[in-house]
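Deliverable D4.2, example record:
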Amino acid sequence: MTTERRKRLTELSGTELEEMLGLIKGSDSVELKLTVPETGHRSAINALRLDPLDAQIRQIFFFDTPDLQLQEAGLAVRARRVQGRGGDSVVKLRPVVPDDLSEDIRRSAAMNVEVDAMPGGYVCSASMKGKVPNKDVFEAVRGERPVRKVFSKEQRAFYTANAPEGLTLDDLRILGPVFVLKLVVEPKKLGKKLVAEAWLLPDGSRILELSTKCPPAEAFQAAMEARAYLEGLGLDLEAEPETKTKATLAFFAGNLAKEAVPTPA
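Output generated by the structure prediction step:
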């Protein structure tokens, strides 16, 4: 299993570049991502002409232990309620090497192997996805339905194979919700769809991520085109990336830690 890279893509050695190319070749898709620094949110929203009234509302719940044992093991477990359609759930493992996954896992219709490429590095992940009614997710986070019931049998098996021994889905705490506004635009100068997601945390902080997906064979051309377009908008592509999942887990785990501190008599 490989490690997540934190070097700039332009700083990769020949060996590291070869490794990244191998991951891309073995993946199902590539997602190019950029986290916009908070100081650049307003200018990015204006430049892309993003209208919040056109956004789809999403409510996302992560599941982990208060000390984030799953994150430490490379697992991200979440369920999502989506406005206007059904919800979904995912058990994601990263980093992975596509060729190291079993044939059964690789051939599953619910499995997607994807390389996330950011200005600050890249990581390959394996996501076992499932569809679940919004109502079921709502009942699970209210304690009216076991957490495991919002995950398919295949997802539960993938979780068990990669989670710390003895830690079941029903043992996990709820970390969330975080509200997300999702907008899809297709700028003429870019010539492809660009997804903007604004993650709104309860303390008022925001994470704005821009992303676009492409087939593995088109990854480098798409990356150059996206970079040229975003730089043309005046966006900072050199800022240290902050992943949505990591920041969200840290926030809610911190809240759990505060709740666990006993009140002085």
